[in-house]
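Regression test attached.
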Amino acid sequence: DTEVTQTPKHLVMGMTNKKSLKCEQHMGHRAMYWYKQKAKKPPELMFVYSYEKLSINESVPSRFSPECPNSSLLNLHLHALQPEDSALYLCASSPWTSGSYEQYFGPGTRLTVT
Amino acid sequence: AQKVTQAQTEISVVEKEDVTLDCVYETRDTTYYLFWYKQPPSGELVFLIRRNSFDEQNEISGRYSWNFQKSTSSFNFTITASQVVDSAVYFCALHPSNAGKSTFGDGTTLTVKP
């Protein structure tokens, strides 16, 4: 299984809502990532979990809260978002062994904040 | 600090033409990893190739080929006999040896017209 799955595919939420994005991989990869991507821009790293521990937090606002329940699952909890947070949110996984840092991406969640 | 430059913002070709996408990188690491990713209009980023800094062999996979030249810090990607399905945004990325984060270029949008 070489797939990273993400749910939901689309999400519309108000600024006072709480929602969660989910990501799953079954490739035995040891690192998982959250990215935010705006139109016509490269993906912007938000968080990296390696061996189920948060290893990189790119100074993301606290209204985004990541969680890694186990090595296959990654969640992103959203609360009190702003309209400028509307974007494509991509999850990725990586083997995270010497020489194998390539990332496998999920299809993304297109988030709209109203 | 790491940097990846994809000077070509947009390229448009007619089907069956060959096209080369340029990638120039900067790093102080002696060991590093380079990647190319494809993002078609559907949105999902797809990993295409990894190249280690100590392996300067060029690679060919079907219509795709990659030219890694350490002397010029370049990792260029050529598509031979382009097809409409090659239309996508292509990102070059650089990853350090210390399991840090990947640095993405701004991407090149390739349009292949029938």
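Expected vs. actual: identical. Chain B has no helices and twelve strands.
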